[in-house]
Amino acid sequence: MSIFNGENVFTDFVEKIGKATQVILKDLRDLTLLVGDITKTSWYVIKHPSKLRWRDVGYYMDLCGSQALPIVIMICFLMGLILAFQAAVQARKFGGEIFVADAVGFSILKELGPLMVAMIATGRAGSAFAAEIGTMKVNEEISALETMGFSPCRFLVIPKVVSMLIAMPVLTVFGDVSGLFGGFVVGVTMLDLPGMAYYTRTIAVLYPSTMALGLIKSVVFGLLIAIVGCLRGFQSESDAQGVGRSTTSSVVTSIFLIVIADSVLTMLYTFLGY
Amino acid sequence: MNNKRKPIVEVRNLTIGYDRQTVMEELNFSVFTGEIFVILGCSGCGKSTLLKHLIGLYEPFRGEIKIFGESIVRADEDEKRELMRQFGVTYQGGALFGSLTLAENVSLPLEEYTTLSREKIKERAYEKLALVDLQGFEEYMPAEISGGMKKRAGLARAMALDPKLLFFDEPSAGLDPITSAELDRLILRLRKELGTTIIIVTHELDSIFTVADRVIMLDKRTKSIIAEGEPHDLKKNSDNDWVREFLNRSNLKQV
Question: How high is the ipTM of this complex?
Fold first, then answer.
């Protein structure tokens, strides 16, 4: 019974809640400031496109886009494979093997394609952004940028956001196609469906809009990953462990926010009748 | 004696700190054009914090800092940026941008703030790097050079726009005595050749006696300036025991 006796348990509890609230409020405040800064700087960059660091955009598109392509293709292919496999077991009971094409098509395009790509990008890009900005903070590079009269947002954040906004939908298209192909492989080998039948069924049930819905998701996810990565980088404490913690926290926060955004968007799509 | 000289940096009733803790209270001092001014004090007394306030990175609790006659405390973001661009800052570790070569690091301010052609910018960057004895290293990445070289490259970048005012954070920290002495000579040369006003934060006694025209000494306990003046003079004639001790002790070590 001892843990119920002391006031300590209660005060500890209240203290913990209070501290957690402080952290959340600080995060919200920093996030609002960063988003405000990004909005302001984006407007400036739209008016003066030459002020965008195009070379950095290229670098990050390579880092977050083309270098991530093999892993995206492989993971999404396997996702399609697993999904088709699971669907096949159920569909077989009703003799509706061909509906595996529907299941795989919709799940991959609307949900798993964008989601898997976002998870990979969080691990690759989001963590890299946080570590990079955190390390720059340790080396006083951020201070140097500021005292040279440069906006850290324009130099460090905007190129990352732009490259993610471009790279994510492109990666998702590749992920979608390889996911569909994964389903196709199961359909043809395990369910003995004629390849042409599976293909025709897939084409018949999916519309370009189905893919577009997924791509919109991927753009939102990309934006979240870039913003959270940069936010955690700027929040990083100025030592090696601080950078480590901020990198971890960027991944955790990104995944959390991506799942929330995904739920919201999925509900919105359903509500709007798509 | 100082009446005819114009202050380039003016600090009035400045109280600084971080979080809720006050580090220094009611500081008053001026730095005059062409001077090498040293901010001195033991580790952890708030030298670097003071520097970061002077260059506008931190906001003071109270008081006024004027640079070139304009307040950096009350400036809005754009005015502050405009003001910051007129002076150079050399950071402890050089703070070079890791993804750019030395020449690109130095070129950066030129690309952003001048209308010079690409060739002219490159030429100017090479020239600045030569000034700090880094010829032949222009295309190296910051990670490939030593700590002392990074500091010098940082100095070259701070001088890219030919500022009238330079700030130095611990120029000799982490350098061997010879490299550190070379850096001191470089600082003196800059002042002589370009007439730059230089403000240095350090606790390195050797370089203080070599370069400083005037020093202020910060004291942790009283949270204020404990001594101000010419270093050799303070060493002999300061009425404060602690100041004399600080300035003399390492002198004993040298002998």
Answer: 0.84
